[in-house]
């Protein structure tokens, strides 16, 4: 019989078909302390990852990789998994946030009492001269410090576990460690830009703003006013 980790891995790959190297990295680095799953008759039928994040000083979880075995979809198992997750977290965590992987899933999460709270905008940016003009962020501490200098209220901050995973497959760039004007997260292999904070000039990307809903929020003890910003997702 397959182990729980192997069952979760297979459910994840069937749902998302992500790059195998990244998926192995995700499971090797994060399964033990960040993966949650639901059983039906001794088999895993639903799974998700949940990483530590902060919002206005309150601790929450960024939920990622939400997936149910195709043969068991529509039976309410994911709803049960979220209920168990919230029960487990309610004494130490104040909220959940996540990015639905498609537009139709916003309705699904609304039925789980998630709200449309995090918005983004489109802009344009040139990436041609990053290597010679920008400095590479090499450590978690640098990542947290530089990004925080460019933050505002209602802005999701990520924990070390998430940042370590992100830095394993992304290049993180800034113009200055002391007085940054820009922060860039870019996938090493594809060159895809995942986040830009600060000055934005030219190629369509998503960044902070209020043009469209990007992610959803569920309070388990903390509510905030206004529009929030969740900048990164492992998509």
What does this structure look like?
With 235 residues, this protein is an alpha+beta fold. The chain contains seven helices and twelve strands. Strands 1, 2, 3, 4, 5, 7, 11 and 12 form an eight-stranded mixed beta sheet that branches. A four-stranded antiparallel beta sheet has the order 6-8-9-10. A hairpin with a 7-residue loop joins strand 8 and strand 9.
Brief summary of the model shown:
The protein is an alpha+beta fold. 31% of the residues lie in helices and 34% in strands.
Please, what is the oligomeric state? single chain
Amino-to-carboxy terminus distance: 30 Å
- Uncertain runs with pLDDT below 50, 5 residues or more? 201-206
Order of helices and strands: HHEEEHEHEHEHEHEEEEE
What's the topology here?
Elements: H1 4-16, H2 20-34, E1 35-40, E2 43-55, E3 58-68, H3 77-89, E4 95-98, H4 105-111, E5 115-124, H5 130-133, E6 135-136, H6 140-149, E7 156-158, H7 160-169, E8 170-174, E9 182-187, E10 193-198, E11 204-208, E12 212-219
Parallel strand pairs: 3-4
Antiparallel strand pairs: 1-2, 2-3, 2-7, 4-12, 5-11, 5-12, 6-8, 8-9, 9-10
List keywords for this structure.
235 residues; four-stranded antiparallel beta sheet; eight-stranded mixed beta sheet; 7 helices; alpha+beta
